[in-house]
Amino acid sequence: MTLETGRGRVHVAGALVGNSHGRVIRVDDYHIDVAPEGWMLVIKNRDVPGVIGRVGTLLGSGGDQHRQLPPGPARHAGQDALAAITVDQPLTNGVLEHLGRAPDVLDVRLRYFGD
């Protein structure tokens, strides 16, 4: 599927596992495997050490609970990475803005995959 937003186009692919478990398996050129449920933080960043650690620290400093940090970000030849992190609630205390200004973070989006 192609989604058109004010920030540009995004190509997303999904798959069904069994009879009911949907998974997002691709976003643009990044191969991922994540269930589209609840609040999801999607971060595009330069593929350098320490980015996911800084993200976890910022999430914790804002009092936000994350359920799942990715085992490793999806990568492509351009050496950028994409991480999808499930969080328990919308980000508070300016955390989303801090994430967007963090070193080596290129783009941050928070979306709700709910009922």
Q: What is the fold's blueprint, element by element?
A:
Elements lengths: L1 E4 L2 E10 L3 E7 L2 E5 L3 E9 L4 H11 L4 E3 L5 E2 L4 E8 L7 H7 L3 E9 L2
Antiparallel strand pairs: 1-2, 2-3, 3-4, 5-8, 5-9, 6-8, 7-8
Describe this protein's structure.
The protein has 115 residues and is an alpha+beta fold. It contains two helices and nine strands; from the N terminus they run βββββαβββαβ. The protein has helices spanning 51-61, 95-101, and strands spanning 2-5, 8-17, 21-27, 30-34, 38-46, 66-68, 74-75, 80-87, 105-113. The strands form two sheets. Strands 5, 6, 7, 8 and 9 form a five-stranded antiparallel β-sheet that branches. A hairpin with a 3-residue loop joins strand 2 (8-17) and strand 3 (21-27). The protein is globular. It starts with a strand and ends with a strand. The model has no long low-confidence stretch (mean pLDDT 82).
